[in-house]
Amino acid sequence: MPSPRTPSKKPRTALIVGGSIVAIAILALVIAKLVMSDDDTKPAKVENSAGLTLELGDVEVQSAGPPATISTAVKQSVLDASQAYVDGAVMSPLEDGKLDADYEKVFDAAVRKSATGRDQATVTEVRTGSVKPVKATATKVRLDGMGDQTGKLVLVAATFGVDLSGKGGVKIKRLTELTFANEQGKWVVTAYRVGVQRSTSARTTSAVAHAGTGVVS
Amino acid sequence: MKLFRRKQRTPKQRLKQALLASGALVVVFTLTVVSLGAAWLAGYKVPLASGATYIKVQKLASTEADAAAGPTTPFFILLVGNDDRPGVGGARGDALHLVGVNPKLHKATMLDIPRDTCWAGDKINAANANGGAPAQAAAVGGLIGVPVSYAVDVNFDGFTSLVDGVGGFSMNIPFEMHDPYSGAYFQPGVQHMTGDEALRFSRDRHDFPQSDIVRTENQGLLIIAGIAQMQKDAQSAGGQFKLIKLLYQHAELDNLGVTDLFRLGRIMYDIPVNAIRNLTIPVTNGNCLGLSGDAPGLFADFADDAVLQSH
Lengths: 217, 311
What we know:
The complex is a heterodimer. In chain A, a hairpin with a 2-residue loop joins strand 5 (170-183) and strand 6. In chain A, strands 1, 2, 3, 4, 5, 6 and 7 form a seven-stranded mixed sheet that branches. Chain A has helices spanning 9-37, 72-96, 109-116, 120-123, and strands at residues 56-63, 135-138, 141-147, 153-166, 170-183, 186-199, 204-211. Chain A contains four helices and seven strands, in the order αβαααββββββ. By secondary structure, chain A is α+β, with helices and mostly antiparallel strands. Chain B is an alpha/beta fold. In chain B, 42% of the residues lie in helices and 21% in strands. In chain B, strand 9 (177-179) and strand 10 (184-186) form a beta hairpin. Classes of the chains: A alpha+beta, B alpha/beta. The A-B interface holds A 7, 10-11, 14-15, 17-19, 21-22, 25-26, 29, 32-33, 36, 60, 62-67, 110, 142, 144-149, 151, 154-155, 157, 159, 177, 179, 181, 191, 193, 210, 212-217 and B 11-12, 15, 18-19, 22-23, 25-26, 29-30, 33-34, 37-38, 41-43, 65, 68-72, 103-104, 236-238, 241-242, 244-245, 248, 257-259, 262-263, 266-267, 270.
């Protein structure tokens, strides 16, 4: 004959059951949030002839509506474009003394005019010219995303620093923020902020350039 | 003697009752957590987390360029602080500031408009109560002679929640304030303002002989201090994205998307605070304030490129 359950065990059982339900619900929400918040798959590294390879760092995404994510494909696209900019606008002039015209293609029409005109001396190293052999290191590329009211990703900002040194004691520190928007399926730079400090044994200069208000000058 | 004696329950009955009560609590709590979580995941504004919507931002007219490129020519934004609050109602435009922005010159001018300024036979602030921000924009635009492209309408709660949302900001209080009506008690000097303190500062008019004229000017100082804080927060794209998200949490936006806000934010970031002129429009005395003689020249100077050159 089974022994009767003592009444004192029932509240404890109810608490355990209730607590388990709450814990499972919270756990389910946390897992769902993690799944929806971001895709942590890292894109492949981008190899570069000059040896400077940008790598993905922290990713943070804001949204005006439901949670937004940056897919691996978008991360890769933004990383590729950032690498193309560094190769064409920074490494190529320092290695070969001239710009690689392909760097212009990463910008949309509105900011391309500023990047290749008014701001070219800051956005690129064309004025520094060849200082081969060049040593270069880069911070990891931080990505900030912004989703619209539907949670669709509309803007991605890539921020990274590059330190360079070359012949004649030239030292260059660059901080770059490129904000990308999707234009007909392609992620192109729609705004930028670039800061650069250049030092030689004789002097140090610094400059900042930014564009992306829609104003073409 | 008690009239109603509670029936004595057996230990078994008490246990059953306790089990039922705790079970119900667990179910309610679980449902609440799951519902709020589901709403949060679905992107709904959960009042506990985000606060209610008390700010309305409207795009009233297109600027020269499209949304993708952002405004490239001078444009005008009307900032309206309305007095809608429990027990008052009405939503009159009690704080009116017309900001002219010239993106190419990286300059802006803010005209502070006293609420009692006469327009169309009435005080100009009545327009907001009659037709909301679009009517207020039409009235102010008509007075000054410019088309208003954007209107930001905020009430007391919205103002304080937005200021608190950015963590408050620092501003230089120009003079001592001691006003029991608004609750503004400040010593001169730089201090950090919370949303509530900023509201008190912006409402004080009893400390000044010129009453609302000085209050309007003070509101202009407050707005510029707020812009300075937002510029600090928007030094990176990530910071700007957080501000946009904050705005969406607290505001209702009409005809404005994320990209619009990003462009507008970049434009405001590009304008140094010391390149923003703050000026109260010249008015005469009286209950319904008329414009003084030099107003037409000032308005024309403002209207041509959104900044003042000869005033």
